[in-house]
Design goal:
CATH superfamily of the largest domain: Alanine racemase
Number of helices: 11
CATH architecture of the largest domain: Alpha-Beta Barrel
Order of helices and strands: EHEHEHEHEHEEHEHEHEHEEHEHEEEE
Largest sheet: 8 strands, mixed
CATH topology of the largest domain: TIM Barrel
Bound molecules: pyridoxal-5'-phosphate
Low-confidence stretches: none
CATH class of the largest domain: Alpha Beta
Helix content: 25-40%
Strand content: 15-25%
């Protein structure tokens, strides 16, 4: 940065790779005492190749939700046998790709899907390892669009059908059921939700015992740990300790069982900023609008989930402008929902000022689109 002007054309994402390293080592430190608890990074949160490589190099596995993500994970160095593959709609080519790559397991969400995986595995003369994604019917106190574990959600198999689907899989020579999978939602900050899931898993395991089903080696508890979007400077790390210990303290595991966590957001959200520039300050009849050159095409979370990101006028802070004014910060896209903040207090803001939108490392760049014929955002890595 020189004289308050960024040299790089805006908008772009900036990733703090040192903060990523620090986050990864905190996770490793938390998990070190437990050799049967593992992290599979949920690749969809951020698929930047350098970010993926750092996470793979740290020895974590990958949670993928598409064939493209499996390819990206393999290219970044995640071993195939540490990749799990979830998703309600897996295409035949994706199933084939996953089988041929030799992934650790498919997280299967329906009987219809199980049958197709069996068919393709039979064709390839292979046995497909599967975990069943069970809908635990526990609530997650988060935005409705990111709640996934309630009975009415499209995800997973009803818990009442668990024994039935495992029995069905036992009859299929091309399927080997190796575990259970759960995922209740995202941006969850109330540990009670994770505790509810852990206790529900204990109940379900008891039911499996009663049904005489052999111990399943994998319990995948999904992800969903939230981060502090309001004050990222104060809380650059998610509360990994409370999160992991909720499971290590409360899950009743059978001997030999491995637990997989699938965190995405908590690993990468705080490493990213979206850097944008003020195009105009527009005086409306009742409001003042700061119109920036990034929009929902670069960061869709505010438009899609009503998400609030911490916003800083970097240039005004350098100028030392102390007088605060109230602005709506909006993007240039032809959609009324293209709004980053309403009634936000910022120092007096001018055309050309650099605005930083914090906590944009997860579900930012990966959800970018080319709507309005806009180019995809550039990325700058900071080491
Ligand atoms: C998206 C997703 C995750 C990661 O969720 P975060 O909230 O980013 O931790 C984990 N598991 C599955 C199955 C997912 O779809």
């Amino acid at each position: 940065m020189t004289h308050g002007k960024e040299i790089i054309p805006t908008p772009y994402y900036k990733y703090d790779m040192r903060l990523l390293d620090e986050t990864l080592s905190r996770i490793s430190d938390e998990l070190r005492p437990y050799n049967n608890y593992h992290l599979h990074y949920a690749v969809k949160a951020n698929t930047n190749p350098d970010v993926l490589k750092r996470i793979a190099a740290q020895g974590f596995g990958a949670d993928c939700v598409s064939g493209g993500e499996i390819r990206a994970a393999l290219a970044a160095g995640f071993p195939a046998n540490s990749i799990s593959y979830a998703g309600v709609g897996k295409a035949d080519w994706e199933i084939r790709l996953a089988l041929e790559a030799g992934i650790e397991c498919f997280n299967v969400e329906s009987i219809a899907e199980l049958e197709i995986i069996a068919e393709i595995a039979t064709e390839l003369n292979m046995v497909a390892p599967v975990c069943f994604r069970i809908n635990p019917d526990v609530g997650a106190h988060t935005h409705a669009n990111i709640t996934t574990g309630m009975a009415e959600n499209k995800f997973g198999i009803a818990k009442e059908d668990m024994v039935k689907v495992i029995r069905m899989a036992e009859q299929m020579p091309a399927i080997k059921c190796i575990g259970l999978h759960f995922h209740i939602g995202s941006q969850i900050l109330d540990m009670q939700d994770f505790l509810d899931l852990a206790l529900r898993i204990n109940e379900l395991q008891d039911q499996l015992d009663e049904a005489g089903i052999e111990t399943l080696p994998i319990i995948n508890v999904g992800g969903g740990l939230g981060v502090d979007y309001d004050d990222p400077d104060k809380h650059p790390f998610a509360d990994f300790h409370s999160y992991f210990s909720t499971y290590t303290d409360n899950l009743r595991l059978r001997s030999g069982q491995q637990v997989i966590f699938e965190l995405g957001r908590a690993v990468v959200a705080q490493i990213g900023q979206l850097v944008t520039r003020v195009l105009y300050v527009k005086e409306g009849t009742v409001k003042k609008f700061v119109i920036v050159d990034a929009g929902m095409t670069e960061l869709i979370r505010p438009a899609l989930y009503d998400a609030k990101h911490h916003i800083v006028n970097v240039t005004a802070e350098q100028r030392g402008d102390a007088v605060l004014e109230k602005y709506d910060v909006v993007g240039p896209i032809c959609e009324s929902s293209d709004v980053f903040a309403t009634d936000l207090l910022l120092p007096h803001t001018q055309r050309g000022d650099i605005i930083s939108i914090a906590s944009a490392g997860a579900y930012g760049e990966t959800m970018a689109s080319q709507y309005n014929c806009r180019p995809l955002p550039k990325v700058v890595l900071e080491w």
